[in-house]
Amino acid sequence: MIEEPYFLSPQNPAATSEQRDFENRALALLQRPELLRTRSIVELLYRNATAYPAREQWDRFDNMIDEYLFHCALAGVNADGNYPGVVRVEQAAGHWFGRDVPGSRRGGGPSPFFTYRNIPISPEGRYEIRGRVNGQNAPMVVYSLMVPTPVTQTVDMIEDGDIPPGPDGQFTITIDASPAAGRSNHLQTRPGAELQLLVRDTLADWHTQTPNFLRVRRLDAPTRDPLSDDEIASRVSRFAIDSLYLFYYYSQSGNGQPPNQLRAPETSGPYGGMATQRTSMANLQLADDEALVIRANAAGARYRDTQLCDQFFLPLDAWSRSGALNMTQMAADEDGEFTYVVAHRDPGVHNWLDTGGLNRTIWGHRWQHFPQGEEHPAPTVSAQLVKHARLDDHLGAGVRRITPAERVQQLAYREAGARRMFIDS
Questions:
Q1: Is pLDDT of 270 > 70?
Q2: CA distances, 38 to each of 27, 42, 235, 247, 292 (Å)
Q3: Separation CA 265–CA 267 (nearest Å)
């Protein structure tokens, strides 16, 4: 499956020559005069809407704009279904291919445990996506065929459980305008709309799991020549401005709630999330001497995570800090439920969500990959605001504790695993 020089690393299937080249092209586009003007417009609009509400975190504003525009540029250079590529987006900043690359997260709380990749699809085109599972510990994957703008809508989807790989780990997905008609692993396009295939590889264990190897091929001939840089720059500019309201909505969907009240678990499908998952969200406001104790169940989900984001709905540091936990990183209470403590300083509890010193954060919890055809409990979640000094009075005896030395080991292990996302050889 690995074909040099397309796949550049046997350890990291996201490291491809295509990814490197699309990133280089996106970075160059952002230096064009018309996109520098677009940046000034985006900055002005977002500043006018958020300067006062986000004043305590304004030092994060420039990075948020950098990530938003890099996301838009990556989407723009890989938006042509005539010449599709497989490009990773919604990724934190890192260093690979010999240069620093900015983050490409557009807000909305993307999970640090997912590898998100986009593939543009024309409604009239015919496509074949060839993949291979990398290793024995395969990730959970969802392939969502979506209308990307103005509000993302899911047209069709396949979950990894519906795609049994062959003995060599390989599989094929087909996409076209025709019904499956007996074909397995098939997605049907919708007429009239440009589409994208959003691939979410869930990496519950950064140390042993990688995304699948993927490569796309259009089976029928392109209907026109590739877009010029001028045409792509125009598309990126339009996309950056047109998508700004949705980006703003994402942040306000968390910030707009009453403080420290958890939203009941619900589907995020109507506004672009995974249609089969359930999520809860909250606008957290903790004084320096406060902590929030959160209790949640597993609800039979094969995958769960919980995370904190800033006021721009970008994830907090989940690599060198514990700003997020997934099901392999969190520890269950003795009764099988899960207790998380959101706090500014280490509470001595295994499931610590570290605010990084931010008094206001957006909290989220997702349950996904429920067992098909089986009964399972409904997702539940509750919270209690307490004084940090009285935290032990509100924790059950069965909550998993952790020593300072164990915390150091826990964080070092996290950071080592996260670095694997930027292996490029």
A1: no
A2: 14, 6, 11, 16, 40
A3: 7
